[in-house]
Amino acid sequence: MILCGRPAQPSDFKDRVFEITMTVRALGEELDGEVGKSSPDPTRVQDLASQLSAAIEAESKFWQTYTGDFWNAQERKCGFCESRLIGAAPQLEHFYPKSSWDELQAQGIEWGTQRVRKRAQRRISPIGFWWLAFNWDNWLAACGVCNSRWKKCFFPVQGLAPGHTARLHSSYRPEPLLLNPFDGPDPETHLVYDDLGAIGPRPESPYGEVTIRTCGLHRPSLAKERKRIYLHAKHQAEIWIRALEQMNDLALSGSTQGLVDLCAPDAPYSGVARYVVYEVTGIPYSEFREIPRTFRSGGTP
User: Are residues 22 and 169 in the same domain?
Assistant: First the structure.
């Protein structure tokens, strides 16, 4: 997982959203009024939440038209697992869930490459973050496996104890514990990898731990692909170290470019390669990617 630059919001976006969300806003305001009562009617809340969810989904074609904007900004990779899609279309993910809000109780296991088994959940709220459903800053592109099979409506946040419920109101915007490819925190400071392709959180990183669990980033099919990148990057990094020690400029230049290519935003699983580069060379990717310029100017890193 890596940080990306969010695509620019189209100039007519807000006007288009305003036009298509009149029903959503009306139902949301009515729901806000019911939830804000000292003793809200649970049946009425559930009924309004269902109507609101249906009204949001009725406009799904609207947000689907923008999936390509985010997919291209993410270099055509899933914002969570960094996979490229073959024979399948990306999905537009609502980071703050739009229809309901669930708590993950059992992580589950991958079944095949497309399904999940033994994943248990508990409903935090029958209401999603409806007021962010059409918010440009709440969108990202994801593969169908991460979006529809793993993350779904799970959304761990700071300050909400396990087992608690929440009364959602449009003034409420909790601080997420999930890593976001646009907003951060930077995944490079929260995730680690090994030579088997396994992923883990950095010590004392709740962001890393819950992102792995929620999005299923530990699944074996991903580990297999990450292992290939890890070993390739490690081999290149070891060549780089030897070339530096031997002052072999030709080998140093070639291995440097090879590592920069593996770490590039459009490279598959480049978060793994960036981790390896730092672990082997001690140089963060943000600095390492500037080294080829040194060679072009006739210097040595």
Answer: yes
Residue 250's identity, in one-letter code, is L
* Distance separating alpha carbons of residues 115 and 112, to the nearest angstrom: 6
Q: Which two tokens stand for residue 194?
A: 């090994």
Residue 241 is predicted with a pLDDT of 92
Q: Which DSSP string do the residues of 158-217 spell out, in sequence order?
A: TT--TT------TT--PPB-S-BTTTBS-GGGTEEE-TT--EEEPTT-HHHHHHHHHHTT
Q: Which residues contact 263 (CB under 8 A, 6 or more apart)?
A: 233, 270, 273, 274, 277, 285, 288, 289
pLDDT for the residue numbered 164: 67
What is the three-class DSSP state of 230?
helix
Is residue 190 situated within a structural domain? no
- Write out residues in the chain with pLDDT < 70, as ranges: 87, 112, 161-165, 167, 292-301
Which three-class secondary structure state does DSSP give residue 246? Answer: helix
As given in the structure block, the two tokens for residue 299 are: 């210097």
Q: Which domain holds residue 239?
A: 221-296
pLDDT at 170: 79
Question: Are 92 and 235 within one domain?
Answer: no
pLDDT digits (tens, 9 = 90+) for 37-59: 888 898 998 899 899 999 999 99
Who's near 193: CB < 8 A, 6+ residues apart? Answer: 199, 200, 226, 230, 271, 272, 275, 276
Number of domains making up the chain? 2
What is the value of pTM for the model shown?
A: 0.88
